Amino acid sequence: MPDDSKIDEVKKKLSEVRSFIETDIKREIKLAEISRTEDGKAGLKKLGIEAGGGNFMAALALLCYTEFAGKFITTENNADTFNAFFKKLGRGYETLLKRNNKIYDTFRNGMAHQYYIKGKSAISMLKNGDTMGIVEIKSGQYWFNVETYLEDFLNAFDREIIRKIETEKTLFDNAYNVLIK
Q1: Using CA atoms, how far apart are residues 176 and 128, in angstroms rounded to an integer?
Q2: N or C: the chain end with fewer CB closer than 10 Å?
């Protein structure tokens, strides 16, 4: 492993990245929460802000962040980097990916290149009791929940990246190359 100063440099960047991700997405979640009440809607209107949160923007950002985090695990192509971290979100995500190996294309590419998730789907901002951020409702129909996905993403980022950065050389090397070089 490299010297402590390089490890500290990478850890500092990872913490910064994590903070930006959490702050930006939680801001949209809070806007959605505030928009649930008439007082909240009125307050936002006074500020010139439309009620609601940026559900499409937040979902796309989380999907891009998933691909970004995968670059620390593997240096393969975009779908492989996405899938590498997507599996780390939890057992349910890994199972979903095994059932549908086109999650990257359906969600990340669909939203980035066609504005919508490919196929029948919906995006919600606030938790609704789902155990995962992406749930298959029926065969080929999906529900994306931003708040749940964010929680799963941050937990996986902490567990699989930040806590392991000092002990897994490939993870450190990839993170160093992405964040520092």
Answers
A1: 37
A2: C
